Amino acid sequence: MSIDLCKVMDLPIHKDPRGNLTAIEGGTHIPFDIQRVYYLYDVPGGSERGGHAHKGLHQLIIAMSGSFDVVLDDGKDKRRVHLNRSYQGLYVCPMIWRTIDNFSSGSVLMVLASNKYSEDDYFREYSDFMRARWQA
Ligand code: TYD
């Protein structure tokens, strides 16, 4: 899988003077069904999260509040994506090593994921990821 498949997607905005609303339906607005939602919050300044790859998981990463950077690495190319809009999501396909840093104060990161949590789906060692990447 190439980082070129990872795209920032514009999500629907229902604009309203009372406040905007964004709704996301799995399979309609994003290219997978949603089995799990998790979020990061109370992130101390200077933290780095992630630092792993998934074997089969599809994800959409959204900056619900504040901003942060997602660094995508497919074992060949790397790209840093800055997220700071709650109406945009970064789609991350399987077999991408991703780290997240540069969190702004008070930021909230939400992940919509295609599967339930499974430790078996992780590569937590970069060397294991690279080995599998080049065997594929
Ligand atoms: P982890 O994936 O290691 O976080 P990071 O994104 O920084 O690599 O998850 C941290 C802890 O939370 C770990 O003990 C596993 C647990 N966890 C769940 O129980 N369910 C989940 O959906 C996720 C993402 C993590």
CATH architecture: Sandwich
Rg computed from alpha carbons, rounded to a whole number of angstroms: 15 Å
Poorly predicted parts: none
CATH class: Mainly Beta
Oligomer: single chain
Distance between the termini: 9 Å
In order across it, which strands form the biggest sheet?
1-7-4-9-2
CATH homologous superfamily grouping: Jelly Rolls
| Structural category | mainly beta
Shape: globular
Q: Give the number of domains.
A: 1
Index terms:
136 residues, mainly beta, Jelly Rolls, five-stranded antiparallel β-sheet, 1 helix, 10 strands, binds thymidine-5'-diphosphate
Structural notes for this entry:
It is a single chain. The chain is globular. The protein has one helix at about 125-135, and strands at about 10, 35-40, 50-55, 60-65, 70-75, 80-85, 90, 95-100, 110-115, 120-125. Strand 5 and strand 6 (about 80-85) form a beta hairpin. The strands form 2 sheets. Strands 1-7-4-9-2 form a 5-stranded antiparallel β-sheet, with no helix packed on it. A 5-stranded antiparallel β-sheet has the order 6-5-8-3-10. The relative contact order is 0.29. It is about 5% helix and about 40% strand. It starts with 7 loop residues before the first strand and ends with a helix. It has one domain (about 5-135): Jelly Rolls (Sandwich), CATH 2.60.120. Bound molecules: thymidine-5'-diphosphate (TYD). Thymidine-5'-diphosphate binds near residues 49, 50, 51 and 117.
